[in-house]
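Protocol step 4 of 6: structure prediction from sequence.
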Amino acid sequence: MVRVALVLSLLLIYTPLMGEDAYEKNCVHCHKKLSSSLQNMFMRYLSTYSGENNLKAGLKRYLKEPSRDTSVMQDMFLDRYGIKKPTKLNEAELDRIIDIYWEKYKVFGKLE
């Protein structure tokens, strides 16, 4: 009985952590420390690439091969925080995260 209670207690404690999606674990965690929010960055990507497919392709390219030339951020931001390291996520994870990012911040279909 004690073992069952212990297992249930551990499940209640760790389930929220296991349910944390890939976007939260791989993006939000680090971006909390930056002066520009993920939503602001999304708007910069959207103004640069102006559409879902182009935005997703541009973001994916940057995450796989980050450089000053492929970043949408201002030079002052890049000088302060630098260029990120290339992602270690596989293609499926990267696509899933970019889809989550798109759904979270897209403006299309949200304006009436």
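Step 5 (inspection) to follow. The radius of gyration is 18 Å.
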